From TrEMBL:
Native organism: Thauera chlorobenzoica
Coiled-coil ranges from the UniProt annotation: none
Name of the featured protein: Divalent cation tolerance protein cutA
SUPFAM superfamilies attached to this UniProt entry: GlnB-like
GO-annotated biological processes: response to metal ion
Length: 124
């Protein structure tokens, strides 16, 4: 059963051109609280059409566990750090899963909170 709420878990897929950039992005997403976990998978071969030509490239896929609430910030972070002109960023809703694991994802993939409002010292 899909949760329509902001805490609903998502799996986000992306690919990077090499293990070093994949590991760096994975670490940044988890350290930044945008993902509970990122699986850096074994390199694969991608075949795709780009600018009218058939291309083949070695890539490193990432499986990113996050929430709907964190998605916008996660996408922005991927776009900022990604070396491709048009990175693959695909979010898939999680239909079912081990409840305790999904709770862990919800707890560990929270969008960053805005900084607290500062009081105006001149008003005091």
């Amino acid at each position: 059963m899909t949760e329509p709420t902001a805490t609903a878990p998502l799996i986000v897929l992306t690919t990077l051109p090499d293990p070093a950039s994949a590991q760096a992005l994975a670490a940044a997403l988890v350290e930044g609280g945008l993902a509970a976990c990122v699986n850096v998978l074994a390199p694969c071969t991608s075949v795709y059409r780009w600018q009218g030509r058939l291309e083949t490239a070695a890539e490193v896929p990432l499986l990113i566990k996050t929430t709907r609430a964190a998605y916008a910030a996660l996408e922005a972070e991927i776009r900022t750090r990604h070396p491709y002109e048009l990175p693959e960023i695909v979010a898939v809703p999680v239909e079912r899963g081990l409840p305790a694991y999904l709770d862990w994802v919800r707890t560990n993939a929270a969008p960053p909170l805005p900084p607290p409002a500062r009081s105006d010292p001149s008003a005091e």
